[in-house]
Amino acid sequence: MPHHSRNGSSSRSKSPPWDDADSPTHKPSNSLLPLSTSNGSLGGSSSKRQAGRVWQIWDTPRGQKVFVGLIIFFYFGLGGGMVFQEHVLLWTGVYKFNYPMFVTAAQLITAQVMLVFWAYLTRLITPAFNLIQFNFVVAPPDPPVYQKTQGWGWGARGSVLEFEWKTGRKFIFASAVFSLKILISNFAFAYGQFPVYQMSRILTIPFALFFATHLQSQTLPVTTMSSALSITFGLFMTSLRHVRFAPEGFIAGLFSSFFTALHPFTLLQAYNIMLENLNTGPTSPGSNNNPSYEDHQRAFWRLLWYINTFSLMFIVPLSIITGSWHEVYRTCYFLDAGYFWFMLWLSGLLGLLCFIFMLGMIRLTSPLTAIVANGPRAASTTALLSYFKMQIYSWVGFWMTWVSMWWYYKGRRQNLGKEEARGRDSVEYEMH
């Protein structure tokens, strides 16, 4: 029986450029919903799931829909908040801190510190998270003592804060794409006004359609392609403004569109590689070798740690070599202002949360959907930063973006239902 992807498009025999089509790293992950349970699986009898709990939230069908809705809501909100915060940091106020290389390095350093802090904090207050059934945000425990071997650098092998070159080298490409995405995006935002920045990034969705077709070997339905391109055109109309054109910001935005569209595809591949290469210890007799809930949880945390660590190795030396740190120290007179450092810390925190919910969105839906969903969010951010004072054609584009998103969502649900029906028919045929 041929494999069908979760996002409702059938597979083709064409192999993706970076991997074999039969490799498990090519298959989309469908494992985010187990993060809302304590047993790692949505299957099994309800009595087993209720054995360790007095009450349930996320294990019910309605609870799962609410969980997915919360992830999408925070994905939208944090993305808009990140854009608004960078607009304040780079373009408004008395500071107007126009040093994108330094800002990128500060964001990654803050994210690294927050990952360590959050890992220890969530383990410390695990009972509180378990009480409200938010245990999916808790960092998984370190492996048993007999599984621990020291890796290169620091951290025990198998822990969420390990660093082992043999494992980490598999994520260098994904880390490079992530680093270029945030670095070039910051340059585009710093050297071009927001309408120019938004206009230069409308190619993100067409790039994502190209990657979904050629990297994931998908045949996209006409509904999906039409609705996605309609979102692109609506966002173009929403962002159209009479402002000073900055060629350096526009060119940086074009490159940013490419890496922004490529990022979720490399992130999904990296997650599946991490899941396949986990050091989970000896397999118990009778096990079907399926990843457990703790495996998915550990893969989630370790991937965040590895990609951010490698990104730091790329960006921090580059920012020092280019003289960004020295220039900030020499020219900025407000380095003793607490508000300035708070804004830098907030930028890093929001960047980390956007990264986390991007990974969650990819695992819930697909890389293409995660990119397409940025269209309505970008249109809403444009209206907000314009103080809702837009031309008629911009409002037409705004509502066109949201209507096209509803069209995309409806088409994807129908295609997913058809795929599931074909899958059930194939299983019944094989059983007969």
UniProtKB/TrEMBL annotation:
Chain intervals with Low complexity compositional bias: 28-47
Region ranges (Disordered): 1-47
GO cellular component: cytoplasmic vesicle membrane; endoplasmic reticulum membrane; Golgi membrane
Membrane-spanning ranges: 66-85, 97-121, 171-191, 219-238, 250-271, 303-325, 337-362, 392-409
Stored InterPro entries: TPT_transporter
Keywords: Cytoplasmic vesicle, Endoplasmic reticulum, Golgi apparatus, Membrane, Sugar transport, Transmembrane, Transmembrane helix, Transport
Membrane topology: Multi-pass membrane protein
Localization (cell): Golgi apparatus membrane; Cytoplasmic vesicle membrane; Endoplasmic reticulum membrane
Subunit architecture: Homooligomer.
Family the entry assigns: Belongs to the TPT transporter family. SLC35D subfamily.
Biological function: Involved in the import of GDP-mannose from the cytoplasm into the Golgi lumen.
Official protein name in the record: GDP-mannose transporter
Source organism of this protein record: Arthrobotrys oligospora (strain ATCC 24927 / CBS 115.81 / DSM 1491)
